Amino acid sequence: MDGTLLNSMAVVERVWGAWAVRNGLDPHELMISVHGVRASDTIRKLGLAVDPDIEARELALAEIADVEGIVEIPGAVAFLNSLPPERWTIVTSAPLELAQRRLAAAGIPVPLHMVTGEDVTAGKPDPQGYLLAAERLGVRAEDCLVFEDAPAGILAGSSAGAEVAVITGAHAAAAGTPHLTLEHYTDVEAWICGDGWLSLQRRYC
User: Fold this and answer.
1) Cβ atoms within 10 A of the Cβ of 100, count?
2) How is 156-200 classified by DSSP, letter by letter?
3) β-sheet bridge partners, residue 146
4) 56: burial class by Cβ within 10 Å (0-12, 13-18, 19+)?
5) Among 90, 119, 107, 123, which residue's Cα sits nearest to residue 4?
6) Distance separating alpha carbons of residues 177 and 154, to the nearest angstrom
7) Which residues are CB-neighbours of 77 under 8 A, at least 6 positions away?
8) Helix or strand (DSSP H, E) at 139
9) In sequence order, which residues have a C-beta less than 8 Å from that of residue 204 and are 6 or more positions away?
10) What does each of the 205 residues of the chain score in pLDDT, given as a tens digit?
């Protein structure tokens, strides 16, 4: 979601940057590790003398209150609207309330079977979220195409057995990936083939 369908970098830098300063951390260094990972998992790995779940909840509340500057990745809404609603979903590390708030701020439709960080016992890079999403969609993960933006998410999608396309328009966390890369969605479109499969194709002028 964040960095894949919408750009929330301005909010992340404000909220997480202030949190980093309060906890004696370098905000720029912290930004490297927060993409695509549940907040509680990020905080836990830092080894600070704080309760990761409490801190994560406070961060989520701050992010829910701040949606200034959140925008769609160019072409994301049109791309999603071109897909059958029962054929796509979102797997996000964000809690449900935050995910809904950001999607609304960016004008992105809420999918039927969204998987959030609260739905899994292990967050990205664990594949649990994508496996659960495939199950809810009624398909095999191997038959899915995952759009991701950060190393943790890319690994989660790959570990689930899915093909991965990397969106690079919001930040450079996944620079150098061997996967298909797209800056945004304005140059691609989805086609429904005669056999019912969806095909992703580049637009050529």
Assistant:
1) 15
2) HHHHHT-EEEEE-SS--TTTT-SSEEES-STTEEEEE-TTS-EEE
3) 164
4) buried
5) 90
6) 9
7) 106, 107, 108, 109
8) none
9) none
10) 999 999 999 999 999 999 999 999 999 999 888 988 999 999 999 999 999 999 999 999 999 999 999 999 999 999 999 999 999 999 999 999 999 999 999 999 999 999 999 999 999 999 999 999 999 999 999 999 999 999 999 999 999 999 999 999 887 766 778 888 899 999 888 888 878 788 888 876 5
Q: For the chain, how many residues are written? A: 205
Quote the tokens at residue 197: 């499969």
The contacts of residue 123 (CB under 8 Å, 6+ apart) are: 37, 38, 41, 93, 117, 129, 152
The amino acid at residue 114 is: M
Tell me the helices (H) and strands (E) count for the chain, helix number first.
Answer: 8, 7
Q: Are 130 and 114 in contact (CB under 8 A)?
A: no
- Tokens linked to 167: 């969106």
In the chain, the N- to C-terminal Cα span, in Å, equals 28
pTM given for the model = 0.91
